[in-house]
Amino acid sequence: MPNQTDRPFLPFSPGPKNKLRQRVRGGGARPRENVAEHGQALLRQIEAFQRTISVQVNDRAPDLPPLPDDHQVIIEARRFQPEQARSLGLTPIEERENGMLVTVSPDINFPALVNKAHGYISERTDSGNPRFGGVIAPIEQIRPATREDKAGERLTAWLNSESFHLDQAVWVDVELAGGQIDDGVQNRQEFYDYISKFSANLPPYAEQVVTATGNYLVETDYSLHRVLLPGRAIVDLLDDSRAHWILSIDLLPEIEDRTVPLPVGAGGSLPELPALSPDAPRVVIV
Fold first, then answer.
1. Which of 75, 79, 122, 123 is deepest in the core (most CB within 10 A)?
2. Within the chain, how many helices (H) and strands (E) appear?
3. What's residue 18's pLDDT?
4. Is the CB of residue 91 less than 8 Å from the CB of residue 110?
5. Which residues of the chain have pLDDT under 50?
6. Comparing C-alpha atoms, which of 79, 78, 102 is closest to residue 91?
7. 216 φ, ψ to 5°?
8. pLDDT score recorded for residue 280
């Protein structure tokens, strides 16, 4: 995954919930003092993961648009390479600071991970080390993605304020795992299918890249979308790990929030400029 630190779109505010992509590198995994305890803890986390997903599915409002079956999985680890996640049946989509890796899993039973965790607990190599220690020992925690992993600072403040209402529609900037690769194409289509349930005014989905004055911008390994969504849809995308293509969501920057949103201006006539007094200063740009 390329290390994208410069965004051609309006940037999200830096913060623990939406830091830009970072490479988390280091040496090999350090051995654990108590291998069995560590392995059993990971297995318990997987069971807790499954219980959380069951609650999400059962408690979700039936009138919300359907979500795919894959889940966004957060791996918190030390000295863990994204390539190692693939050997556990996980697809890495973003690296963050402090050893956090955002991945996607098609199966919440995690058969490859569970199998290796059991081997890590009970089997040893010829040299006496735990089997699969290279991929299991670095992992501190495995859990579903939550609101705290996806919501930007401005959005978090609004969700926690008295002004938040589930039916209130607001403009948000969405970062999606929707780059130019095949998975990105499918992710953008699934996201568009979701948001189209809340707006009959969206233009037909188009695959070509558009500029930042349109509805979305597609880069190599991510895409950016500016959309108008009700609070209930935003909460759903933040809280349900099956919205696995969502990397972050935030309200528009304040300076833009006081102007007409770009997609509105791009689709029609420009708004009228305020009248100026005769003695107002003028600036000429050549």
1. 75
2. 10, 8
3. 39
4. no
5. 1-27, 206-213
6. 102
7. -155, 165
8. 79
Contacts for 94 with CB less than 8 Å, ≥ 6 apart: 1, 21, 101, 102, 177, 222, 247
Using one digit for the tens of pLDDT, what is the confidence trace for 36-75?
999 999 999 999 999 999 999 999 999 999 999 999 999 9
Within 10 angstroms of residue 77's Cβ, the number of other Cβ atoms is 22
pTM, two decimal places: 0.75
Q: Residues 78, 29: contact at Cβ < 8 Å?
A: yes
The number of residues making up the chain comes to 286
Which residue is it, tokens 């607001």? 170
Give the N- to C-terminal CA distance of the chain in Å, as an integer.
41
What is the pLDDT, as a whole number, of residue 197?
A: 86
For residue 86, the SS3 value is helix
Considering only CA atoms, which of 155, 169, 174 is closest in space to residue 229? 169
- Is the separation of the CB atoms in 195 and 203 below 8 Å? no
Token duo for residue 264: 């509105």
pLDDT on residue 227: 85
Of 190, 221, 197, 238, the residue nearest 72 (C-alpha)? 238
Across 230-261, b (16+ Cβ under 10 Å) vs e yields: bbbbbbbbbbbbbbbbbbbbbbbeeeeeeeee
